[in-house]
Amino acid sequence: MEPDLVPLDRIDLSEDGFWDRPRTFREGAFQTLRREAPVAKFDEVAFGPIPAGPGYHVLSTMQDVLFASKNPQIFGSAQGATSIADLPPEFLDFFGGMINMDDPRHAKQRKIVSAAFTPGRLKKVEDQVAEVAAKVVDDIAAKGSCDFVTEVAARLPLQIICEMMGVPEDRWEFVFERSNVILGAGDPEYVGEIGPDDLIGALLTAGAELAGLMTEMAEERKVDPTDDLTTALITPDADGEVLSQDDLNSFFVLLLVAGNETTRNAISHGLYQLTLHPEQKQQWIEDFEGHARTAVEEIVRYASPVIFMRRTLNEDVTLSGTDLKAGEKVMLWYASANRDETVFENPHAFDITRTPNNHVGFGGPGPHFCLGANLARREIMVMFRELFERLPDIHTVGEPDYLTSNFVNGIKHLRAEFTPVV
Ligand code: HEM
């Protein structure tokens, strides 16, 4: 895909409708920003009852995104990493997981959580990924066509997180719907045609319902421990540390929203790109293991499922010649850094053999680097292996139905067809 030529004075990332424009326009806008205004400032708009803030700076080059990631003492996450607007304090109950924390709080939580991901548990999860992927393909194989997003890509990551945490199967749909509301908040398909004030209510309700489920599960595990992650997180670690109930609830919500939509969108964009480039699909099928590592990285770079993350400046700093002041909001525009022409040759080309591929799809090097990166890589790889082995002619049909969002590069629906296997 070659980007449009978009002049700087036509670019307003806050403009109503910008995020509904064709991808070629969007890519063109960021190409211009990288070249002409690598640290560009935009006005904020009101978000429901939250009044418009003072504006935000967008870091569109890889160099600046890496600098910000590596200097968390300057670029803080505690005032909110996942939204441009400053969210009201009640949001922190459910959405204030460690992605929205700085050290020392962040380091403490990340240590407890990372310690729970023991090699034994990761091995078990790997086996589950293969089992769930096989089951997902079983369910569509005889049909010859499906909605690839809802019937394939969305099912694997959701089920894996639910299984890891020990969510009972009859609650999976409940979890799926609430996580859709949280990440699809800008799109009427997930929250209905509601006014902006009700949107905040819908988000809070979804968060509270997920937190309620987690509280219920933790209570059960205290009486009846199992070998799931929930049990591990409420059991003191080697240093006697456990997550509080509130921290456990917000971690659960974070895992769901961070691990679900992202991986789902990577898989959906992946099949779409492989359909647009059948020769690459064939190449991967012919030597699956040989290309798996680079293909998965390219899918994540190309899809950039997380478009940006926010930081707030703790001190003044100068980036690409622009002076920024303490207290200002700065967006690490991962999707743009992943197209930086000074880093990637032919950045707009999809190439499953791309090497090197130092993308920031999972975030930059720093304390918030994606905790689930290895799990996500495995899920993407195993899903394609299963699809290619059993439905090798699977391909998408038509254009993706994209999510309206400046934060998640989402695909809501995408038709796929294949020769049925009974
Ligand atoms: C293709 C799939 C995925 C993508 C593109 C992705 C992307 C990201 C990005 C960009 C961040 C950085 C946040 C920042 O800079 O502030 C992040 C953090 C995080 N991700 Fe992922 N993620 C994916 C899958 C997953 C999965 C499967 C899980 C868990 C099951 C997960 C859990 C997390 C958590 C807990 C954090 C917060 C880490 C922290 O703040 O210390 N992610 N992810």
Could you walk me through the main structural features you see in this protein, from its secondary elements to its overall organization?
This protein is an alpha+beta fold. It has one domain (8-417): Cytochrome p450, CATH 1.10.630. Helix content is 50%, strand content 10%. It has a five-stranded mixed beta sheet with strand order 1-2-8-5-3. The structure holds protoporphyrin IX containing FE.
Number of helices: 16
Determine the mean pLDDT.
Answer: 93
The description of the largest β-sheet is: 5 strands, mixed
The residue ranges in which pLDDT falls below 50 over 5 or more consecutive positions are none
According to CATH, the fold-level topology is Cytochrome p450
Give me the CATH architecture, please.
Orthogonal Bundle
Helix/strand/pairing category: alpha+beta
Determine the fraction of residues in helical runs and give it as a percent range.
40-55%
The domain count comes to 1
